[in-house]
């Protein structure tokens, strides 16, 4: 949310821009909208998609560790952080 108002300003300027839509900025806005609306989903949907995103993140990181590409994550060590996370259920406090 720290970048929320900056992104809104960028979108408003894009709409009025004679140069058209900046695709990278537009995709960034789509990801941002998904991010802030995600917790409003039903719990089953929210937890399922959270785990899918985490799995994809670690899959990509794992692929990068076996390639010649530099990791895009600075100071990030391969660990199964998602396995250490606890997911609160509706009934837990």
TrEMBL record:
GO-annotated molecular function: 3',5'-cyclic-nucleotide phosphodiesterase activity; metal ion binding
Residues in PDEase domain copies: 1-93
Record GO biological process: signal transduction
Pfam assignment, any one: PDEase_I
Keyword Metal-binding: yes
This protein's UniProt keywords: Hydrolase, Metal-binding
PROSITE patterns, per database record: PDEASE_I_2 (PS51845)
SUPFAM superfamilies for this protein: HD-domain/PDEase-like
Protein name according to UniProt: PDEase domain-containing protein
Annotated source species: Romanomermis culicivorax
């Amino acid at each position: 949310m720290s970048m929320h108002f900056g992104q809104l300003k960028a979108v408003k300027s894009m709409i009025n821009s004679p140069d058209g839509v900046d695709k990278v900025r537009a995709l960034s806005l789509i990801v941002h909208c998904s991010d802030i609306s995600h917790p409003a989903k039903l719990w089953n949907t929210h937890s399922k998609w959270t785990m899918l995103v985490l799995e994809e993140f670690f899959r990509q990181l794992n692929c990068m560790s076996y390639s010649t590409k530099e990791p895009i994550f600075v100071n990030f060590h391969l660990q199964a952080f998602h396995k250490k996370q606890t997911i609160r259920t509706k009934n837990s406090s």
